């Protein structure tokens, strides 16, 4: 078992993932990488054999899925209620209509799904006893707004259960941290992280510290494309308008008790004006910041407690 942190970088879930284990082994990294790839195989809408694609293509009928898929769908439905519908996994038909039909990894076309209805999260059903989920008829689901964060949480917890002293699991900017850094054997364990400036990468708009928990950034700078009429579209669909969100925000970063909650709330924040997003985050007692199209940086009241 290494006394120094060991690290691995890989491509998974359409993004770069970084696994850092303190007080661990290479075998732990191997297992963590295997789990991330397994979760991708279950949840990717670009795989014809994934749980999500099979459920979408059988919309209206129960489909047997892995226990991890049951868990993330249940968490996603809670998130929809908690965000008053600003986060909604049934926006896939609108996302496809907006033009996000090809994988960012290999440019392959996503499997065809028959759904056309959106805003159907309240009708998604899951049955733990039967290990099934049922996508509403004429609808389709996508876990892109929660999958990376939920995966980071799962892998971080499993690494700690396997004996690591501390871990950082970063899946495309959705980050889970647990335990203690190897270079901080005494005192309060602190993990230092930066928030990239979307207008001037790789410069940072803020640097903050975490003891444990999660952080995530949602934004429009990465997954975007040019439409047939020459306009620019992105992957964050506003449930109110069924179109890519256009509220003057380039990125939203949220700190929470876990990466999945941070990812969900960062996505939900993108569906409001910058001022409304900050007020909403303050209201639910989460720390975060918003970067606007004009370059302004707005911070929640509690973010100061995390800043370095």
Description of the molecule:
27% of the residues lie in helices and 27% in strands. By secondary structure, it is α+β, with helices and mostly antiparallel strands. Among the domains are: 89 residues, T-fold (Orthogonal Bundle); 116 residues, ApbE-like domains (T-fold), CATH 3.10.520.10. Strands 1-2-6-7-10-15-16-17 form an 8-stranded antiparallel sheet, with helices on one face. It has a 3-stranded antiparallel sheet with strand order 3-5-4, covered by helices on one side. A hairpin with a 4-residue loop joins strand 13 and strand 14. The radius of gyration is 19 Å and the shape is globular.
What keywords describe this structure?
three-stranded antiparallel beta sheet, globular, 308 residues, T-fold, alpha+beta, 27% helix
Structure in a nutshell:
It catalyses: L-threonyl-[protein] + FAD = FMN-L-threonyl-[protein] + AMP + H(+). 46% of the residues are buried. The longest helix has 18 residues, at 26-43.
Computed structural class: alpha+beta
Q: Compute the separation of the termini in Å.
A: 31 Å
- Biggest sheet features: 8 strands, antiparallel
Order of helices and strands: EEHHEHHEEHEEEEEEEEEEHHEE
- Mean pLDDT across the residues is 90
Number of strands: 17
Q: Enumerate the strands of the largest sheet in spatial order, edge to edge or round the barrel.
A: 1-2-6-7-10-15-16-17
Low-confidence stretches: none
Number of helices: 7
Q: Which architecture name of the domain at 190-305 does CATH use? A: Roll
Helix content: 25-40%
Choose one word for the global shape: globular
CATH superfamily of the domain at 190-305, by name, is ApbE-like domains
- Share of β-strand residues: 25-35%
CATH topology of the domain at 190-305: T-fold
How large is the radius of gyration? Answer: 19 Å
CATH level 1 class label of the domain at 190-305: Alpha Beta
């Amino acid at each position: 078992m290494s006394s120094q942190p060991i690290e691995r970088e890989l491509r998974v879930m359409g993004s770069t993932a970084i696994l850092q284990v303190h007080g661990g082994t290479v075998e732990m990294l191997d297992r963590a990488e295997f789990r991330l790839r397994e979760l991708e195989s279950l949840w990717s809408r670009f795989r014809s054999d994934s749980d999500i694609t099979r459920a979408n293509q059988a919309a209206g009928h129960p489909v047997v899925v892995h226990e991890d898929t049951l868990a993330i769908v249940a968490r996603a439905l809670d998130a929809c209620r908690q965000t008053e519908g600003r986060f909604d996994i049934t926006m896939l038909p609108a996302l496809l209509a907006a033009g996000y039909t090809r994988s960012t990894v290999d440019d392959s076309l996503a499997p065809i799904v028959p759904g056309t209805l959106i805003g159907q999260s309240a009708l998604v059903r899951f049955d733990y006893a039967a290990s099934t989920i049922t996508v509403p008829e004429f609808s389709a689901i996508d876990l892109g707004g929660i999958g990376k964060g939920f995966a980071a949480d799962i892998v971080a917890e499993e690494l700690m259960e396997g004996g690591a002293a501390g871990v950082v699991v970063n899946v495309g900017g959705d980050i889970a941290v647990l335990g203690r850094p190897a270079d901080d054997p005494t005192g309060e364990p602190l993990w230092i992280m930066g928030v990239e400036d979307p207008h001037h990468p790789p410069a940072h708009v803020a640097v903050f510290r975490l003891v444990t928990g999660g952080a995530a950034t949602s934004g429009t700078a990465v997954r975007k494309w040019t439409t047939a009429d020459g306009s620019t579209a992105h992957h964050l669909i506003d449930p109110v308008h069924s179109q890519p969100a256009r509220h003057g925000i380039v990125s939203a970063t949220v700190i929470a008790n876990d990466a999945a909650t941070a990812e969900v709330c960062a996505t939900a924040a993108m569906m409001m004006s910058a001022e409304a997003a900050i007020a909403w985050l303050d209201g639910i007692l989460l720390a975060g910041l918003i970067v606007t199209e004009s370059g302004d940086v707005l911070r929640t009241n509690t973010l100061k407690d995390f800043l370095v």
